[in-house]
Amino acid sequence: MSPYLSKNYRFKKKPRLQSLREAGLFVGFSMLAIMLTLFVLGWIAYAFEAQAASGINQQLNYQGKMTDSSGLTVSDASWNFKFEPEATTEEIVVEDGDTVQTSSL
């Protein structure tokens, strides 16, 4: 026996039923806290979910540099420019063409 502890402060073993009750409360509150945390995190993630725009954007700004087959800039002239974006299935989604005038800056 330790000289610093009187017999009034000795550890007293709790009844088994009380220990089980306390353990059950601890597990229950822990699960409740975890579920509440997951709910709040899910709600926050849903709040910041990306929203798609309604309709289709009718404008597409595309800029490029016209070069010949060897990679040199084409000379000032009138050129027929064809724009054909393709889907992943390699079918042409939109086809548009225009004649453009090039000029060196």
| Class computed from helices, strands and strand pairing | alpha+beta
Strand content: 5-15%
Please provide the count of β strands: 2
The number of distinct helices, counting runs of at least 4 residues, comes to 1
Instruction: Encode the helix/strand succession as letters.
Output: HEE
Order of strands, main sheet, comes to 1-2
Distance between the termini: 98 Å
As residue ranges, the low-confidence spans are none
- Rg for CA atoms: 37 Å
Helix content: 25-40%
- State mean pLDDT (0 to 100 scale): 79
Oligomer: single chain
The major sheet is characterized as: 2 strands, antiparallel
Q: What characteristic shape results from the CA principal axes?
A: rod-shaped
Description:
There is one protein chain. This protein has 105 residues and is of the alpha+beta class. It has a domain at 14-47. It contains 1 helix and 2 strands. It has one helix at residues 16-47, and strands at 78-83, 96-101. Strands 1-2 form a two-stranded antiparallel ribbon. The longest helix has 32 residues, at 16-47.
Topology, element by element:
Blueprint: H1 16-47, E1 78-83, E2 96-101
Antiparallel strand pairs: 1-2
Q: How would you sum up this structure in a few lines?
A:
The chain is of the alpha+beta class and 105 residues long. The chain is built from 1 helix and 2 strands; from the N terminus they run αββ. The chain has one helix at residues 16-47; strands at residues 78-83, 96-101.
